[in-house]
Design goal:
The chain is α/β, with parallel strands linked by helices and 469 residues long. The chain is globular and about 60 Å long. Helix 8 packs antiparallel against helix 16 and helix 10 crosses helix 15. Strand 10 and strand 11 form a beta hairpin.
Length: 469
């Protein structure tokens, strides 16, 4: 903890505040100073709440002085993605037409993070309507990957991942419908967790309609960080119940003990469709790291990954076309419209009966995976089977929906199944981060985090970094 405060992780900041080593104001000022130094080069934080954050920091310091009970994130600065409600801030979704969509109340994740004592210093960038795996929009412009500006920071939580990698904050909020926490974490060399469906409550008070069925089944809220232990403390804070979300489940954060050694099913090329050699190497290195940590790693394929990914792809884009396409066409930018054209071209039109059969088939896949996870409590595999793509890769004329689906197949399969997964970096390949994800059974985030910490201890990527010009 001799490093500058902006290099500290969230656990260190929280400890420093509790022990009197630093004040909440000093923690917030460190983040704001770092933001001033680097954000212009990466465009990760789109709205800065400097004055409000400092006021909240002073209030938090008075609580420390009074000897009040402190939350686990008391005084820790963080950011919030621009697609969830935050009181007095606009929920823009990266859309020009929504720039004045000011929230009058906090969403569930913001409410819980504040309850835990965290201090919001700003909002982070995303793709328009959170619909692309690259973070760019006409309202805020593109976010740049701090490792190499030519490559995507991922999407849709690209601003969150880039800001954490560059040291603006130790923690960031994100959400994940089809990999939108894990893919940016992968691209930027940080860690991120997609919790189990029902683990973290979600509700936007500004929403005029209920979310679509796949949004309710596939999308979850979660944190990104530089260290796995920070994910653990942030997940605990975010998982507090909110009666506004009927999907929330009061499940314990620590599950029952299981037999040792823990069996891990390792797949570097899910369904045998193809994998970049650097990604294959990363998965195998992670497997070796787990073996050294006492896990029993076996090269075994989980059930029908490609078929699960196909079903996610079909349901997600069928539903987008029926429920969201007119609004996207009306107010979305050209980038999201072109990406939507590509997605829809790769998802054949279906009738209502086919959609209903697809929703029903989800249960078949979940059953198969839960049975598999009884034998292998953890699955180790790639986040993406390709190294981070170039910026705007999804708008390149040679890119197709099939290519993206194949690359992201294990990632989107996890969303359809509603399972928890942690993305953790393992090293660099050609100067870019590469990493893996660990998938567990329902509400076994604890097992995923334990294994991710074992990998992190041996294959850690050093962040924060100075953004590359």
């Amino acid at each position: 903890m001799k490093e500058p405060i902006w290099k500290w992780d969230a656990v260190e900041i929280a400890f420093g505040i509790r022990s009197g080593l630093i004040s909440c104001r000093e923690a917030v000022e460190a983040s704001l100073d770092r933001l001033t130094a680097v954000n212009n080069s990466i465009n990760a934080v789109t709205v800065v709440h400097a004055e409000q954050a400092l006021d909240h920091a002073d209030e938090a310091d008075r609580a420390v002085s009074r000897g009040d009970a402190l939350g686990p994130l008391h005084g820790v600065p963080l950011t919030i993605k621009e697609n969830v409600d935050q009181t007095a801030a606009s929920t823009t979704q990266g859309v020009v037409a929504l720039k004045d969509n000011v929230a009058t109340a906090d969403s569930s994740p913001v409410m819980n993070l504040r309850k835990a004592g965290a201090i919001v210093i700003g909002r982070t960038n995303l793709s328009t309507f959170a619909l692309r795996w690259h973070s760019d929009n006409d309202l805020r412009g593109p976010t740049y990957n701090p490792w190499n500006r030519a490559y995507t920071p991922g999407g849709s939580s690209g601003g969150a991942a880039a800001s954490v990698a560059a040291g603006i904050t130790a923690l960031a909020h994100g959400n994940d419908y089809g990999g939108s926490i894990r893919y940016p974490a992968y691209c930027c060399g940080v860690v991120g967790i997609k919790p189990t469906l029902g683990r973290v409550p979600a509700f936007n008070p500004s929403a005029k309609d209920e979310r679509s069925l796949t949004s309710q089944l596939f999308s979850v809220q979660g944190p990104l960080a530089r260290r796995v232990r920070d994910l653990r403390i942030a997940l605990g804070a975010m998982a507090v119940g909110d009666v506004r979300d009927p999907w929330w489940v009061p499940a314990p954060l620590q599950g029952p003990a299981i037999g040792r050694p823990i069996r891990v099913a390792m797949t570097s090329d899910p369904s045998g469709i193809g994998v970049d050699p650097a990604v294959d190497k990363a998965v195998r290195q992670a497997g070796k790291a787990l073996e050294r940590a006492g896990y029993q790693v076996e090269e075994v394929e989980p059930p029908n990954t490609a078929a699960v990914a196909d079903l996610w792809w079909q349901l997600a884009w069928w539903e987008t076309k029926e429920m969201s396409e007119p609004f996207i066409r009306s107010v979305g930018d050209q980038g999201v419209k072109r990406a939507l054209d590509m997605y829809l071209a790769s998802a054949p039109k279906v009738d209502l009966q086919a959609y209903m059969r697809g929703v029903a088939a989800r249960a078949t896949h979940i059953r198969s995976w839960l049975q598999f996870l009884e034998q292998y409590p953890l699955i180790l595999g790639p986040v993406s089977t390709e190294l981070p793509f170039l910026a705007d890769f999804d708008l390149h004329p040679d890119m197709t929906g099939e290519k993206i689906k194949h690359a992201q197949r294990l990632m989107i399969a996890v969303n359809l199944l509603g399972l928890p997964a942690v993305a953790v970096p393992t090293g660099l390949a050609s100067g870019l981060p590469v990493g893996v994800q660990l998938i567990g059974s329902r509400f076994r985030e604890d097992l995923c985090l334990d294994a991710a910490e074992a990998i992190e201890a041996q294959l850690r990527v050093e962040t924060p970094i100075e953004p590359k010009p």
